[in-house]
Amino acid sequence: MEGCRIHILVSVSLMLMFPVVYGWGVDGHLITCTIAQTMFSNATTDAVNNLLPDYADGDLASLCSWADQIRFHYRWSAALHFIDTPEVCNYNYARDCHDEAGNKNRCVAGAINNYTSQLLGYGNDSTQYNLTEALLFLSHFVGDIHQPLHTAFESDKGGNLIDVYWYTQETNLHHVWDDSIIESEEDDYYGEDVNGLINAIQGNITSEYADQVPGWEICSNNKTACPDVYASEGILYACNWAYKNATEGTTLGDDYFLSRLPIVNLRLAQGGVRLAATLNRIFG
Ligand SMILES: *[C@@H]1O[C@H](CO)[C@@H](O)[C@H](O)[C@H]1NC(C)=O
Ligand SMILES: *[C@@H]1O[C@H](CO)[C@@H](O)[C@H](O)[C@H]1NC(C)=O
Ligand SMILES: *[C@@H]1O[C@H](CO)[C@@H](O)[C@H](O)[C@H]1NC(C)=O
Ligand SMILES: *[C@@H]1O[C@H](CO)[C@@H](O)[C@H](O)[C@H]1NC(C)=O
Ligand SMILES: *[C@@H]1O[C@H](CO)[C@@H](O)[C@H](O)[C@H]1NC(C)=O
Ligand SMILES: *[C@@H]1O[C@H](CO)[C@@H](O)[C@H](O)[C@H]1NC(C)=O
Ligand SMILES: *[C@@H]1O[C@H](CO)[C@@H](O)[C@H](O)[C@H]1NC(C)=O
């Protein structure tokens, strides 16, 4: 664990200097994992406590950005954070789940399946995998797959190549969805406090969204993980909301922010609920 701790310290300082990350930003991942933790079964809580390093003190959310922090070190994992479609508004595993070199299964949906099946070996002493890493990857990737621009067009790298202004700030569309919308929401409504936003989303899970939550939790045909469902939803949100009215050079302001906010909130809620449901199926 010592090597890992040193690495995390180094990575955290790197992240403070270069706050450019793949996937929901640090707050997005903190939000999905914090929501998930409140919905763990006792068996999941026990397994997670067992697998987390001691310094995490049982708090999975504190390590939910680990997969971003180690991507400089584990370069092979970079392709596992997203899915590229060939500029079409639908997703197909066989067509889209590969890395740039064409290696199959190397996308966020393939990675969710991979780490789910590794974790199903929990309790089997002869497992060949590092299940601490499997848990941290899975928890991160279930968040990422809910960020609409993580299942998006190859041609613009999921919005990374679309330069826009967020109010007056120069940035790109991918970053707007990873971070800017969430940060502006925290600033404008919750006194810059991520916990205020987490509480509000949790309030919606038990009220506004309550009727839909059982449907989010389901993974049909006895499957343990359902990443294809989430990716198919994601590309539709990308086409209908993220890319709309956000072409190169556009200034995105109140109209864009206020109309996209409910989608970001919904996807964060779904990510949290589905991570808990997936881990609860894995650990029984
Ligand atoms: C598992 O991975 C963690 C995080 O990378 C690392 O700290 C730990 O040493 C690994 N465990 C084993 C047994 O290799
Ligand atoms: C966990 O176990 C405790 C007692 O051991 C029980 O009261 C509680 O309802 C359980 N919680 C869940 C989420 O199953
Ligand atoms: C599956 O997990 C192993 C161990 O982390 C990794 O080496 C491999 O690249 C992963 N493959 C996919 C498709 O996620
Ligand atoms: C435990 O893992 C080994 C090696 O991967 C496998 O052969 C065996 O079937 C597993 N046992 C159970 C009970 O899943
Ligand atoms: C799901 O699993 C249960 C128990 O293993 C089995 O009885 C049922 O037929 C399975 N359903 C499907 C759709 O595979
Ligand atoms: C895009 O902009 C047009 C013109 O302002 C507006 O009518 C439309 O509702 C906007 N669509 C979205 C999804 O924001
Ligand atoms: C709560 O739900 C409403 C209705 O769907 C939505 O507009 C709002 O953005 C949600 N807020 C949070 C914090 O989830």
From TrEMBL:
<keyword id="KW-0255">Endonuclease</keyword>
<dbReference type="GO" id="GO:0003676">
    <property type="term" value="F:nucleic acid binding"/>
</dbReference>
<keyword id="KW-1015">Disulfide bond</keyword>
<feature type="signal peptide">
    <location>
        <begin position="1"/>
        <end position="23"/>
    </location>
</feature>
<keyword id="KW-0378">Hydrolase</keyword>
<dbReference type="Pfam" id="PF02265">
    <property type="entry name" value="S1-P1_nuclease"/>
</dbReference>
<keyword id="KW-0325">Glycoprotein</keyword>
<protein>
    <recommendedName>
        <fullName>Aspergillus nuclease S1</fullName>
        <ecNumber>3.1.30.1</ecNumber>
    </recommendedName>
</protein>
<dbReference type="GO" id="GO:0006308">
    <property type="term" value="P:DNA catabolic process"/>
</dbReference>
<comment type="subunit">
    <text>Monomer.</text>
</comment>
<dbReference type="GO" id="GO:0004521">
    <property type="term" value="F:RNA endonuclease activity"/>
</dbReference>
<dbReference type="InterPro" id="IPR008947">
    <property type="entry name" value="PLipase_C/P1_nuclease_dom_sf"/>
</dbReference>
<keyword id="KW-0540">Nuclease</keyword>
<keyword id="KW-0479">Metal-binding</keyword>
<dbReference type="GO" id="GO:0000014">
    <property type="term" value="F:single-stranded DNA endodeoxyribonuclease activity"/>
</dbReference>
<dbReference type="GO" id="GO:0046872">
    <property type="term" value="F:metal ion binding"/>
</dbReference>
<keyword id="KW-0732">Signal</keyword>
<comment type="similarity">
    <text>Belongs to the nuclease type I family.</text>
</comment>
<dbReference type="InterPro" id="IPR003154">
    <property type="entry name" value="S1/P1nuclease"/>
</dbReference>
